[in-house]
Amino acid sequence: MRSGSVSEAAKKLCRTQPAVSAMIFSLETELAFQLFEREKGRLIPKPEAYFLLEESDAILERLTRTSQLMAEVGHLSRGHLRIACMPAAALYFMPHVVAGFVQDKPAINISMMMRSSMIVYDWIAAQQYDIGYAEMPRARDSIHVEPVILKGVCAVHQDDPLAAKPCITPEDLDGVALATLFFQHPNTETLRFLFEERGVRFHPRFELQNFMSGFELVERQLCCSVCDPMSAASYRISKSRQGPVVFRPFVPDVIFEHAILTPSHKPMSMMARSFVESIRQELNAFMPVGCFEE
User: Fold this and answer.
1) Domain HTH lysR-type: where (predicted)?
2) Burial of 243 from C-beta contacts in 10 A (0-12 / 13-18 / 19+)
3) Which terminus of the chain has fewer CB atoms gathered within 10 Å of its CB, N or C?
């Protein structure tokens, strides 16, 4: 119809004229009605032919667009990623990872929700989110777990004599008021056992849901806190490294177990795999060795 004749169409398609005529006849047979009137060797398009041409153009345009979109998906430049994250990582760390990941990818959309670790587990298990970051969960068949092991640091006020020490021990915190996670939290229990083993007094004056809220209490010189380094790095960023709370290594090691979580029964997209790799890389960049030295 665009070429004006079967012979011109055959040239453009690199086919013979009989082959094109046979294709038209086959199409009309499949449709069960004629698309062209035959007059003196010429094909005159019927209204049905114009309708089919319009529909075909729309389909071909959609196929071309789909091919382009899938090429962009394959190059990780387009798509949608859903992330569920616990509060300690959601305030600064995960936005830091997201910002770096999408910096040169304007067509990638991100949904990031902050919830408790328990809810993050359920969302990942239900395949509602592609990636989760939370405290280490108990074994669940529905969740794939990649451990993230972090060594605790001690938060003290810069005017506290403890701030002058290169590292802080349980003996240094004998009877000192502490801001800890809630009483039943594994890290609080570990810290309590460690103090008891050393024969020093464990004084959890403030029991909290997260360490970020505890740093306000440390600023007021009401307590110290043995916390995870991700929360410590987040505090430093929030205060532009000018806050009165300083962080020192805590000895012996108190381990905080975090994890990168993905659904076990759902294949990861290429984009999700790439984002997990970004998390791995940014963990070291966000909390570099020696970043808490004054």
Assistant:
1) 1-46
2) middle
3) C
Q: What are phi and psi of 185, to 5 degrees?
A: -65, 140
Beta strands 36-39 and 42-45 are antiparallel
Distance CA 36, CA 143 (A): 60
Alpha helix (H) residue ranges in 176-269: 186-198, 211-219, 229-238
Q: What span, in angstroms and rounded, lies between the C-alpha atoms of 145 and 147?
A: 6
44-52 CB contacts, 8 Å cutoff, 24+ apart: 45/1, 49/1, 50/1
* Residue predicted with more confidence, 201 or 70: 201
Distance CA 262, CA 268 (A): 8
72: confidence class by pLDDT, cuts 50, 70, 90: low
Other beta carbons within 10 Å of 202: 19
Cα–Cα distance between 179 and 216 in angstroms, integer? Answer: 10
Query: How far is 235 from 91, CA to CA, in rounded Å?
Result: 10
Domains of the chain: 6-74 (1.10.10.10), 80-142+260-286 (3.40.190.10), 153-253 (3.40.190.10)
> What pLDDT does residue 291 have?
44
**Cβ pair 257, 136 in contact under 8 A:** yes
| Cβ burial, residue 173 (10 Å; 0-12/13-18/19+) | buried
**163-191 tens-digit pLDDT:** 999 999 999 999 999 999 999 999 999 99
CB-facing half-sphere around the CA of 8: CA atoms within 13 A: 7
Query: What is the spatial distance between Cα 107 and Cα 11, in angstroms, rounded to a whole number?
Result: 40
